[in-house]
Amino acid sequence: xxxxxxxxxxxxxxxxxxxxxxxxxxxxxxxxxxxxxxxxxxxxxxxxxxxxxxxxxxxxxxxxxxxxxxxxxxxxxxxxxxxxxxxxxxxxxxxxxxxxxxxxxxxxxxxxxxxxxxxxxxxxxxxxxxxxxxxxxxxxxxxxxxxxxxxxxxxxxxxxxxxxxxxxxxxxxxxxxxxxxxxxxxxxxxxxxxxxxxxxxxxxxxxxxxxxxxxxxxxxxxxxxxxxxxxxxxxxxxxxxxxxxxxxxxxxxxxxxxxxxxxx
Length: 264
Prior knowledge:
Layout: H1 2-17, H2 19-43, E1 49-50, E2 53-54, H3 55-73, H4 80-85, H5 89-93, H6 99-129, H7 139-164, H8 174-187, H9 199-206, H10 215-221, H11 227-258
Antiparallel strand pairs: 1-2
Helix pairs in contact: 1-6, 2-3, 3-6, 3-7, 7-10, 7-11
């Protein structure tokens, strides 16, 4: 465990080394959040409802997804593709370290830094904007939200790892990563709740893994799901996590057969 803790610490130190790039990223994130926040603030005046959401619930949803994106979507696993392409994978194959545990530890270090900034940013915005937020006090609901978030973190890591595995077959890993980021923005509910879409479309999305990254944990927190929907959703998240794990292992083993260690 100590070696993975050192990886987390090194990732934190690396971010601090290139702090300007990180700060620019956080500024972009804040501006994106403000754009969506003020859009919904205008669409849902205080005392009214839209799509079944009051202003309080919708603004809590928007700020909640902003925080969860720092917890769940912050990742370094996309670097696996470059790691494979430049031949650095060879170094990991001869070391007594699990390749995926190493990158998951890198993810944890990246998430820790993003969470730290997200807490500061959101605290400042809450003080300045004074939004009418909804606070959940039911401990069982909070516990189930935490479970959902935990599996969401693992599932997103598996997605990132699968994108990184493209490096075994293609030197271009940036384009698929960019497309995936666009998909996450829409299908995971980062910009709006999935259930404001037509019922048939929203139901279709429930069979994909994407809503369980952001939309589902926030819906649990808001108390808008009954017990059966929560347990079915968590079970679906676990099932997708298992399927992605199996698929990742298959892709990893097949990719190693093609790996030529170029550059080393």
